[in-house]
């Protein structure tokens, strides 16, 4: 539903919560998701403001310096928080659709000031949605700090950091209905969720998305279906079966996964409803003792009138289309077929499924579809999608960790 | 995606004082889940109570201090629960337990019975809380006064008695608390506040998303096919052809019709107009929206069913070129998938986001679509059995206006003559749908 963005108002998502509650993690994931589905979205935080400010000394990490007793640092943080808000306004006034704000929002007073600031400065229609992350499980908090901040602590210890948090929490005011704000509270990573005054298409979508997030770092395997006769003939599209070589490769793929998954039968296993997908998945699944869920959402991009033709034939028959595709590969739509944007939209429910799953995920699909899935985890701009390499007989292993995604590729011989 | 996730049975239990919309939510969920293809049934404790204890129960029957009555009510609940468990243990996939379930004791009883007697069941508790007096009065007026319990009373007495009944329940009401360790969603004041606890799993997440979009604003939904196209005239399927002359005229008359339905420009500006990316639909939308001076949204999700290799052929040609497929389709039109194309089941899966959109919208919605797409959309609002979907009658040059009401959908069909602009209200002439209307009315009275 990307087209919705052209008619709707701007959206500001504001994050609220004590340090080490996963605000930055949530903002990164949301930002990545919103950009992927086609909105122009950006995060504005103290860290971001610091990087953009040349006059400031970059050695101190102002996002981590939360000591409320150090008056000088407190002032700098307030200034940076304000600068971030100003940069956010500029962004929305020009090209932005959605902005995420990760600044100082821990008291009712701060929030009202922010709300009024936006109202005064933004000359267009906008909506603000508040996302609060609350955590009272000490183990989770320590894990958060270890995973995301440890590397950035210089002469500090976790204990000092936790002490600062305890001091700050004295003044912390959680979101309340009386403030008349539209919000969602995520408590203990979504174990409990409270939503207030939810309105609008985009906010509903964001809430559904947030309900699926969790903190398990599980692996995601993306694999192409194996070789078919069409590959040999250099044809695109179609619904061909696996060639003999393809079946052999599927066996090898199965063997690889037996080792990799070490007998774990709790796998979220998806494939498409195309013959090559089903056949590859059946062979691999048999080796692993699991059955794939077959969904039409993972079917290859519809090549429309070019379906079943070789690359040379297309160049000869439809030169105009080839030119159009070179000029704008992301939005180019095969006549009577789909574009990458359509595939993204089609594959979105699969992303929800992957996000929701706390077990390893294995997806056997096709080139264009995998490019879109891969881009969700790895690319900052969807314009990069057409250039992504998804080789055949190659297992791409993605492990999303806080703030980015680890990747490794294994070619199966 | 649906056939992927049928491993666990699901029991959905409602919680809440009377007149809080529990039956409304149960029925909406029932309709949605059946439409998606699950075997789903509602078990309403009130119905069991009416059958066993009769309908002449005044508010003293619901007094918790009335031992005999309490025993009878518990027995009714147990009977309903037994039937529900029997359903889930056989071919039922999702069962909805529609009752007040207002005490911890009752909830505990239900929860442990379900866990012990059902193999592999997941439970979800939906609590509806409302303290807005106006909403409650309205609920009572719309749904309780026609209830068999109050058939012999006049409206004022009935309302008074019902409010008395609510008071009986209020005395012992215990809201769901975290320590009961249940998976629940609390809907407070029709979704102004929502609380979700421990909800995991594909279907439960989906149900939660669906519930968050519900509201009770009675906005109209207009469904219409694009104007007649060149392919329609030649009896061809698929393709991406233009509007025929008749189609253009219909679009203009449709625009005029909507001008009358929405007299002020302000009202018109609120209309959500959705259409597909196919030429015949966008051309229709162009003309209509020009007249109304509004924008429209093109969604690929609303594109007509993909007929794969049969694209642009007439039915006669398909019968000759692909006789086996033609025969197969006649036998099983719902699940038959055109080679390299889609089936009706694929369509239902594809247009599900549109249902969310329409449910969520508090403003009038106009959908300019295609025959197969509209059959699926219409079936959702009309509560048709999924098997009826491929046969539903969605004629060309007819506007279907749906207004969701308490437990069903009011429907008006208006045939617009493209030449003259004459509007004629028509009755559906399918026997199947007539039976549906009858059963709808019947279940409306039974609550």
From TrEMBL, chain A:
<dbReference type="InterPro" id="IPR013078">
    <property type="entry name" value="His_Pase_superF_clade-1"/>
</dbReference>
<dbReference type="GO" id="GO:0006000">
    <property type="term" value="P:fructose metabolic process"/>
</dbReference>
<feature type="binding site">
    <location>
        <position position="276"/>
    </location>
    <ligand>
        <name>substrate</name>
    </ligand>
</feature>
<feature type="binding site">
    <location>
        <begin position="300"/>
        <end position="303"/>
    </location>
    <ligand>
        <name>substrate</name>
    </ligand>
</feature>
<keyword id="KW-0067">ATP-binding</keyword>
<dbReference type="GO" id="GO:0005829">
    <property type="term" value="C:cytosol"/>
</dbReference>
<feature type="domain" description="6-phosphofructo-2-kinase">
    <location>
        <begin position="5"/>
        <end position="215"/>
    </location>
</feature>
<keyword id="KW-0547">Nucleotide-binding</keyword>
<dbReference type="InterPro" id="IPR003094">
    <property type="entry name" value="6Pfruct_kin"/>
</dbReference>
<dbReference type="GO" id="GO:0006003">
    <property type="term" value="P:fructose 2,6-bisphosphate metabolic process"/>
</dbReference>
<dbReference type="Pfam" id="PF00300">
    <property type="entry name" value="His_Phos_1"/>
</dbReference>
<dbReference type="InterPro" id="IPR013079">
    <property type="entry name" value="6Phosfructo_kin"/>
</dbReference>
<dbReference type="GO" id="GO:0005524">
    <property type="term" value="F:ATP binding"/>
</dbReference>
<dbReference type="GO" id="GO:0004331">
    <property type="term" value="F:fructose-2,6-bisphosphate 2-phosphatase activity"/>
</dbReference>
<protein>
    <recommendedName>
        <fullName>6-phosphofructo-2-kinase domain-containing protein</fullName>
    </recommendedName>
</protein>
<dbReference type="GO" id="GO:0003873">
    <property type="term" value="F:6-phosphofructo-2-kinase activity"/>
</dbReference>
<dbReference type="Pfam" id="PF01591">
    <property type="entry name" value="6PF2K"/>
</dbReference>
From TrEMBL, chain B:
<dbReference type="Pfam" id="PF00300">
    <property type="entry name" value="His_Phos_1"/>
</dbReference>
<dbReference type="GO" id="GO:0005524">
    <property type="term" value="F:ATP binding"/>
</dbReference>
<dbReference type="GO" id="GO:0003873">
    <property type="term" value="F:6-phosphofructo-2-kinase activity"/>
</dbReference>
<dbReference type="Pfam" id="PF01591">
    <property type="entry name" value="6PF2K"/>
</dbReference>
<feature type="domain" description="6-phosphofructo-2-kinase">
    <location>
        <begin position="6"/>
        <end position="218"/>
    </location>
</feature>
<dbReference type="InterPro" id="IPR013079">
    <property type="entry name" value="6Phosfructo_kin"/>
</dbReference>
<dbReference type="InterPro" id="IPR013078">
    <property type="entry name" value="His_Pase_superF_clade-1"/>
</dbReference>
<keyword id="KW-0067">ATP-binding</keyword>
<dbReference type="GO" id="GO:0004331">
    <property type="term" value="F:fructose-2,6-bisphosphate 2-phosphatase activity"/>
</dbReference>
<dbReference type="InterPro" id="IPR003094">
    <property type="entry name" value="6Pfruct_kin"/>
</dbReference>
<dbReference type="GO" id="GO:0005829">
    <property type="term" value="C:cytosol"/>
</dbReference>
<dbReference type="GO" id="GO:0006003">
    <property type="term" value="P:fructose 2,6-bisphosphate metabolic process"/>
</dbReference>
<feature type="binding site">
    <location>
        <begin position="225"/>
        <end position="232"/>
    </location>
    <ligand>
        <name>substrate</name>
    </ligand>
</feature>
<dbReference type="GO" id="GO:0006000">
    <property type="term" value="P:fructose metabolic process"/>
</dbReference>
<feature type="binding site">
    <location>
        <position position="280"/>
    </location>
    <ligand>
        <name>substrate</name>
    </ligand>
</feature>
<feature type="active site" description="Tele-phosphohistidine intermediate">
    <location>
        <position position="226"/>
    </location>
</feature>
<feature type="active site" description="Proton donor/acceptor">
    <location>
        <position position="304"/>
    </location>
</feature>
<keyword id="KW-0547">Nucleotide-binding</keyword>
<protein>
    <recommendedName>
        <fullName>6-phosphofructo-2-kinase domain-containing protein</fullName>
    </recommendedName>
</protein>
